[in-house]
């Protein structure tokens, strides 16, 4: 049976927090509307992956599934109003941030809108693109951040970003909250925004990796060099309708077809809600510097990268949880592998599926090798859009579940300047909330390993329609204990590792009782 979603229509953005509790009056800000001018460049079609997101939004409206964000701690003394001024210049410089979307008789189209009078004050629950939240007694920043991350965008002819400066005590440094819809950006785009702000503060002249100078903090920057159009850049990042795409299609059909036939692509966690909310809650586990160093040393001993080793451990935990030994795990790949794309904002990532079959009699070292081999084989075929791959495989979809795989592993490496000497810099580090946040989620489980130089921080996100907090803590804790249990040789059998972990958990429970 086939069906087509209804076209997306304009809709008010819900302003009630996900937990249902009203925001305190101290969070009120002046509402600010954007101009009505919807002019700009000529409309052009959505990429296959954008179209998949658009279709998802039509089927499941008013959810934060594809809302992404990051919160950063600014250095003491950085002025909030000047940050907003520079952010407006960032929007002028990057066409992707000015993308807007509309339905047409030919289907959804996107176009680059002109800058049209963005207001500089806004508040939780309105659609303004820029805002400053003044410091007041009783501000609960963690709750406000979670509220904004769970607030969906109105997709029709509206800006799909929100930049908010949360004012705090001068000695603490303000917070900058950057929120994008995946239609216009990815986490690398957030990095580009942070980089442009930082380098403008450092006084780099035009042409030095960014068009901004220190003068941009108070006045317009010099005109940047002419860049390829957004449509040209995005077309260069993929290769649909080419011989390479045909080869990629053959590869994926050959590699994943048998696993799909064996049921590896079906949702493992059933039943699923008829109206999924696509809201996840975080569980964070920071590995000690000693354990982080040990993981790196083990990866070197196994001749794999820490990325591969930690992904293999994630696959193993998921296999134990679901009882599956034929698995498809997904990870993300940045498509900015050409010099002319490195500074391009937009949705320029692709989902890379990896099919792995293993048995309990396999060693962990051998599992790492299997994952590495799957990754190396898949890497040359990473540019075929995931949405195209899903269509070509003709999958039977589970309503509300991601196709092909419902688990996602990502790796995030932090800049060496974050968390270290920040004299003269605009940013100190990322802001880690005191409590676990709720945010949009597209998969059942997402694990992001954050490489913070001397430590790895494992940021788990679980779909709260499918997981209870106690179960999520159990999964996150078992993953960390697995890393702690690995021996130097890596020769321990996977079945034995599982039994060792179970005995340790039972002993801990008995001790607690």
Strand/helix succession:
EHEHEEEHEEHHHEHHEEHHEEEEEHH
What is the fold-level CATH name, i.e. the topology of the largest domain? Answer: Chloramphenicol Acetyltransferase
CATH structural architecture of the largest domain: 2-Layer Sandwich
Q: What is the terminal-to-terminal distance?
A: 53 Å
Structure summary, number of beta strands = 15
Strand order of the largest sheet: 10-9-11-14-15-8-13
Can you count the helices? Answer: 12
- Name the helicity range: 25-40%
Give the low-confidence spans: 1-39, 119-125, 203-228, 419-423
Report the sheet-strand fraction: 15-25%
Shape: globular
Report Rg.
23 Å
- Within CATH, the superfamily of the largest domain carries the name Nonribosomal peptide synthetase, condensation domain
The level 1 CATH classification of the largest domain is Alpha Beta
Look at the helices and sheets and give the structural class. Answer: alpha+beta
**Tally of individual domains:** 2
Overall pLDDT score:
81
